[in-house]
Write a structure and sequence with these properties.
The complex is a heterodimer of chains A (about 120) and B (about 270). Chain A has about 120 residues and is mostly helical. Chain A has four helices and no strands. In chain A, helix 1 runs antiparallel to helix 3 and helix 3 packs antiparallel against helix 4. The longest helix of chain A has about 35 residues. With about 270 residues, chain B is mostly helical. The radius of gyration of chain B is 18 Å and the shape is globular. The chains are: A mainly alpha (about 120), B mainly alpha (about 270). At the A-B interface, helix 1, helix 2, helix 3 and helix 4 of A face helix 3, helix 4, helix 8 and helix 9 of B.
């Protein structure tokens, strides 16, 4: 007889693991980047340099990677919840989650396309 | 180190009160370190995501956050966050400072009105993690249109001012929908990260975020969020609210002065 965890436990367990794991990874990248940046003298990045430019700048690029990981954590959070809802058969909740995920991904695309607005 | 310490304080406070800490981060960076408001807001939004992720991992695992309700409300909040993020690039800094001051006055007012004890329930224990059906908590479907409207406003506030919107969301979930305060705080913590992300992308790709500032602050926030979520059951909320109230009023006054500076109005 296979043990299947109750639906509530599956959702909460997987979402909390994703949140914890992504946070730990982002924090590690930030810590590594900040320490390396300080060890290299703590030079300032160019003014108004965006994410693409940071990635060319060594330790500042590692910090930038950590910040990007932080910003992407909600996307991972929603993707995990979507999969969990589908597994436990809650289709309405899965559709709502998909809608939120689409809005978030749309905002990411919009941010890239309209990044010159307001500069 | 000062940036890390500031992040630690903001993350702890945010996790304890269901906020993202942005209400503390934005003034810390603008008034304390002299950074431009747009840079501070972008950094703050990323900090809000860090607070949310760090605290929500604990709240979701311990079944205190209502994941289903949070995601439902997030549809409206995320749309509001995008609108706020776009708008922020088009407004004058003084206007944004004035709006932030207004938010702080509203926060102070809410804190003064807040209950010191949670409402009593006659029925069976509330199970925030219960799936849809007979065991689902009653508050989950109560006054949903009003809750969605409030959530859209929370998203606007988030994207425009660099806060998580928790200062609006917690009252919406607790007072409008009738959820227990602990559930409202935990659920708010779960969803403010999603809200903030919708606006954060715009600041990040527009070059408004300085990684050498954001990096140390976000590091401190991670630590504070984890600490705050674990202290939530042990801290006397009354004293915490009082301390927060003093900070909020002080910041509101400073932001008001910044907003009216072009008019030549000065405290001296």
């Amino acid at each position: 007889m296979s043990h299947r965890p109750p639906p509530g436990d599956l959702l909460n367990r997987t979402v909390s693991r994703t949140l914890g794991g992504a946070s730990a990874l982002a924090a590690a990248a930030l810590a590594l980047g900040v320490v390396a940046w300080l060890a290299q003298g703590g030079a300032q990045p160019p003014d108004r340099a965006d994410l693409g430019r940071w990635l060319e700048l060594g330790s500042i690029g590692v910090i930038g990677l950590g910040l990007l990981l932080v910003t992407l954590t909600p996307v991972l959070q929603l993707a995990t919840a979507l999969v969990a809802f589908l597994r436990i058969g809650e289709r309405r909740e899965a559709l709502v989650t998909l809608a939120v995920l689409a809005i978030l991904l749309g905002s990411m695309v919009g941010a890239v396309l309209f990044r010159e607005v307001g500069r | 180190m000062l940036l890390v310490a500031g992040g630690l304080a903001a993350g702890s406070m945010g996790a304890l009160l269901g906020l993202g800490g942005g209400i503390l981060i934005v003034p810390l960076l603008t008034l304390g370190f002299g950074y431009p408001l747009s840079a501070a807001i972008g950094t703050s939004l990323i900090c809000v995501i860090a607070t949310s992720s760090g605290a929500a991992a604990h709240y979701v695992r311990t079944d205190r956050a209502d994941v289903r309700l949070g995601i439902t409300l997030e549809v409206a909040t995320a749309l509001g966050g995008i609108a706020g993020g776009v708008l922020a690039g088009l407004l004058l800094e003084e206007v944004v400072a004035g709006l932030f001051a207004a938010l702080m006055y509203y926060t102070a007012f809410s804190l003064l009105r807040a209950r010191t004890t949670p409402p009593a329930f006659d029925g069976p224990a509330i199970l925030p993690g219960a799936p849809p059906g007979p065991t689902a908590p009653e508050y989950r479907g109560r006054r949903m249109p009003a809750a969605l409207a409030g959530s859209f406003l929370a998203g606007n506030v988030s994207g425009l001012l660099g806060v998580g919107g928790g200062v609006v969301k917690v009252p919406v979930i607790h007072l409008v929908m009738g959820a227990p305060l602990s559930v409202a705080i935990a659920t708010s913590n779960f969803i403010i990260g999603v809200t903030a992300a919708a606006g954060a992308f715009f600041y990040l790709f527009r070059g408004d975020v300085d990684p050498t500032v954001a990096g140390p602050v976000v590091l401190g926030v991670f630590g504070g969020a984890v600490l705050g979520s674990r202290l939530a059951a042990r801290v006397n909320a009354k004293w915490l609210r009082l301390l927060f109230l003093v900070v909020v009023v002080y910041v509101a006054m400073q932001m008001t002065l910044r907003a009216v500076a072009p008019l030549g109005i000065s405290p001296l």
